[in-house]
TrEMBL record, chain A:
This is Small ribosomal subunit protein uS10m. The keyword Transferase does not apply. Residues 55-153 form the Small ribosomal subunit protein uS10 domain. Keywords: Mitochondrion, Ribonucleoprotein, Ribosomal protein. Coiled coil: none annotated. It comes from Arctia plantaginis. It comes from the Eukaryota.
TrEMBL record, chain B:
GO terms for cellular component: mitochondrial small ribosomal subunit. Pfam families: MRP-S28. GO terms for biological process: mitochondrial translation. It comes from Arctia plantaginis. Residues 176-248 form the Small ribosomal subunit protein mS35 mitochondrial conserved domain. One of its GO terms (molecular function) is structural constituent of ribosome. This is Small ribosomal subunit protein mS35 mitochondrial conserved domain-containing protein.
Length: 170, 343
C-alpha cells in the first residue's frame, strides 16, 4: 500500500510540467482577448446631479440629543463647504395621547392618560452637487444617535427634457 | 464594684440580685484573665460564629492601578481614546461629570456607577477636532457647486424642473420606508414653451395641480411601488399633458364667449357699442361684421384705451370699490363729461 502511495505522490511531479503547459496555453491567449474591450473608454459620462436644496428633518425622544446632533450636522456641513440656510426646532413637542380607564372594567369617570412626545429639529442646506450630497448624507446617517430618525428631502434641479418642445405641424 | 461589695449587707431584697451581680463580676474577671494568658485560651463553642464575623477583613490588592482617567495627559489625542459611539464609561472620560435628579440642596451623583450617564446617547466620539479631521479626509469625495449658478434665477433658467424625493433613516425592523417611493415634480409654467391656447388647455388638463399665485405646476406620483417607476410616471405625465395641450380638437372650435376663462373686451358687446357710438357721433353709417368689430382699431377713439382697461379689470378682477370708481372715471372721460364733483 505504501509503495502505491509513494508512486501516486511521485507521479504528479513527473507529469506536472506537461500538464501545466497544456493548461497555460489557453489561459495565456485568453487575457489578450479580454484586454481589448477594457481599453474602450465609456462614451457616456455620468453627470453630477445638482441639488438646489436639501432639507433634514430630525425627530427623536430627547431634545438634548437632537440639539447635539444638529450641531454636529451644521459643523460637518461647514467643514465640507456646504451652505446652511436655516436650523430651527419646533417650540413644543408633538404629543400622541392615549386615554384609558384607570380600572379596567368599571369606574368610567376615572381615567389615566399616557403620552408619547416626539421632538423635531430641522436643518436646511442649499446648493449641493450629487457627490457632495451623497458623502455628507452618508457621514451624517452613520453617526445618527440612538432613538433618533432622519428624513432627508432632496430637491433636485434638472434640465427640461428635450422632447418637451412644441410640435411642428407644418 | 468592690466598694459596693464591701458595704453590702445581706437583706431580704438582696437575695433577688445576688445571682446577677456575681455573674457580672465573673465575666469582667474572665476578660482580664484572658488578656494575660493568651496562649491558654479557653475554647468556647461558638455556635453563631460571632467571632469569625468580627475578624473578617476585606483583602485589598496592593497592585491595583489608579483610574485611567487620572493618568491621562492634557495633550492626548481624544479621538484615539474614544474612537466610536460607545456607552459612557467613567474611567475613560477625564471630566468631573455629574448627572441625576436629587432633592434641592444636594449635589447630583458623580460619574461612577451613574446609570443616568449611561442611558443617554453621548457625542464623545464627535468632538469638534474629530469632526474637522474626518471632514478633511471626506473632502476628496466632494465637488464644487458650479460658480455660474450663483443665484436662484440662474438655476431656474438653466434647470427649471425640480424633482423632490425623500430618504428615511430610522431604527425599525425594516430599512425600507414606503414613503420613500413618492416623487414630486415641480415646474414653473412660464418656463414651458406654450402658446395662448396650449397654456389654457394645459392648465385645464392639470387642474388643481397648478397654482396660479406662484405659477407652479406640481405633479406628485405615489401609485407605483418603486421610486424609479414613480419618477418615470411623473415624467410621462408632464410629457403627455404638454403634447396634449398642443393638440387642437375639432370640438374646441365650438367654444363660445360664455366658455371663456377670462373677459376679452375685443370680443364682447361693450366694444361693439363703443364703436357704434363713435361712428354715430361722426355721422358715419356703416354696417360692420363681427370680425370688423373685433379688429377695429380703438386708438382712433379718444380715451377708449382707458375705458377698455377699466371694463376688463371690472370683469376680470371682480367688482370692488376701486374698479367701480375707475370704471366711472373712464366713462366720464370717454363721453367727455366733467369730473365728479367732491362736495
Amino acid at each position: 500500500m505504501n509503495a502505491i502511495r509513494s508512486i501516486w505522490r511521485a507521479a504528479p511531479v513527473v507529469w506536472r510540467p506537461t500538464s501545466f503547459n497544456c493548461t497555460m496555453r489557453p489561459l495565456s491567449t485568453a487575457p489578450v482577448t479580454i484586454q481589448k474591450p477594457t481599453e474602450q473608454v465609456p462614451t457616456t459620462i455620468e453627470l453630477d446631479k445638482l441639488y438646489k436644496r436639501v432639507e433634514l428633518e430630525m425627530r427623536g425622544i430627547d431634545p438634548a440629543v437632537l440639539l447635539s446632533y444638529s450641531w454636529f450636522c451644521v459643523a460637518a456641513a461647514s467643514h465640507l463647504g456646504i451652505e446652511v440656510t436655516k436650523s430651527w426646532a419646533l417650540r413644543k413637542a408633538e404629543k400622541e395621547r392615549h386615554t384609558l380607564l384607570r380600572a379596567v372594567h368599571i369606574y368610567k369617570k376615572h381615567r389615566v392618560q399616557y403620552e408619547i412626545r416626539t421632538y423635531f429639529r430641522f436643518v436646511h442646506l442649499q446648493r449641493l452637487t450629487g457627490s457632495t450630497c451623497d458623502t455628507y448624507l452618508e457621514y451624517i446617517e452613520r453617526n445618527l444617535p440612538e432613538g433618533c430618525a432622519l428624513k432627508v428631502t432632496k430637491i433636485e434641479c434638472q434640465k427640461l427634457p428635450e422632447h418637451i418642445t412644441p410640435p411642428d405641424n407644418e | 464594684m468592690s466598694i459596693f461589695i464591701r458595704n453590702y449587707k445581706p437583706g431580704p431584697l438582696a437575695t433577688l440580685y445576688k445571682a446577677n451581680i456575681w455573674r457580672l463580676n465573673s465575666t469582667t474577671a474572665e476578660s482580664s484573665v484572658k488578656k494575660d494568658e493568651d496562649e491558654e485560651e479557653f475554647r468556647v463553642l461558638d455556635i453563631l460564629k460571632k467571632r469569625d464575623k468580627q475578624q473578617k477583613r476585606i483583602v485589598r490588592r496592593t497592585d491595583i492601578q489608579p483610574d485611567r482617567a487620572d493618568r491621562m495627559t492634557e495633550n492626548q489625542n481624544w479621538g484615539n481614546v474614544w474612537p466610536g459611539p460607545k456607552t459612557f464609561h467613567p474611567s475613560s472620560v477625564p471630566l468631573p461629570l455629574r448627572q441625576g435628579y436629587v432633592p434641592a440642596g444636594q449635589a447630583p451623583p458623580a460619574k461612577k456607577a451613574n446609570a443616568e450617564l449611561m442611558k443617554i446617547p453621548n457625542f464623545l466620539h464627535l468632538t469638534p477636532p474629530v469632526i474637522k479631521s474626518q471632514c478633511e479626509s471626506l473632502k476628496q469625495f466632494c465637488t464644487e457647486w458650479p460658480t455660474l449658478l450663483n443665484s436662484e434665477e440662474a438655476i431656474e433658467k438653466h434647470y427649471p424642473v425640480e424633482v423632490i424625493t425623500s430618504d428615511y433613516c430610522h431604527a425599525s425592523p425594516s430599512i425600507r420606508n414606503p414613503l420613500a417611493r413618492v416623487v414630486t415634480l415641480r415646474i414653473k409654467l412660464s418656463t414651458l414653451d406654450l402658446d395662448k391656447h396650449a397654456r389654457d388647455k394645459f392648465i385645464r388638463l392639470v387642474g388643481d395641480r397648478y397654482d396660479s399665485s406662484t405659477d407652479l405646476v406640481t405633479i406628485t406620483a405615489d401609485r407605483c411601488p418603486m421610486r424609479a417607476q414613480n419618477l418615470d410616471y411623473v415624467n410621462y405625465l408632464l410629457t403627455a399633458c404638454y403634447h396634449e395641450a398642443w393638440n387642437v380638437e375639432e370640438w374646441e372650435k365650438d367654444k363660445t364667449e360664455d366658455d371663456m376663462e377670462y373677459y376679452n373686451w375685443d370680443n364682447n358687446a361693450s366694444k361693439k357699442s363703443v364703436v357704434n357710438w363713435y361712428l354715430a357721433k361722426r355721422n358715419e353709417q356703416r354696417d360692420l361684421t363681427e370680425d370688423e368689430y373685433r379688429s377695429y382699431d380703438i386708438s382712433v377713439i379718444p380715451n377708449a384705451e382707458g375705458y377698455k382697461s377699466a371694463v376688463s379689470s371690472l370683469m376680470n378682477d371682480g367688482e370692488s370699490e376701486e374698479t367701480v370708481n375707475n370704471y366711472g372715471k373712464a366713462v366720464r372721460k370717454l363721453l367727455g363729461l366733467p369730473e365728479k364733483m367732491v362736495v
